[in-house]
Amino acid sequence: MVLPVVLLPRTSPFRTPDCMPEGISPAWRLTRQLPLGRRRGLGSCCWYHQGDWRKVSRTAIRLLRRVHRRRTGHRPHG
Q: Where would I find the H helices in 1-78?
């Protein structure tokens, strides 16, 4: 079954004020995402930051390529 992400249940804690505060400006959010704005120790604070998003991306790409091969009979370029 495929569901929109918004319908998936949220884990607890999904968002913690330390790592993902609500209501901050886009400029402040960008500053926090740059290497100089990152704090040490991120990675175990919440569900989102515990995820290996590189692995998620690789898996998604692999699955999409598999679907493409099955539908067209060949590999996509790139």
A: 26-33, 47-50, 53-72
**Domain carrying residue 33:** 12-72
d(CA 9, CA 14): 10
Distance CA 44, CA 47 (A): 8
pTM, entire model: 0.47
Tokens in use for 7?
A: 């319908």
pLDDT at 58 > cutoff 70: yes
Is residue 46, in this structure, part of any structural domain at all? yes
Residue 62 sits at the vertex; the CA angle it makes with 74 and 66, to the nearest 5 degrees, is 35
Q: Give the helix/strand (H/E) hosting 78.
A: none
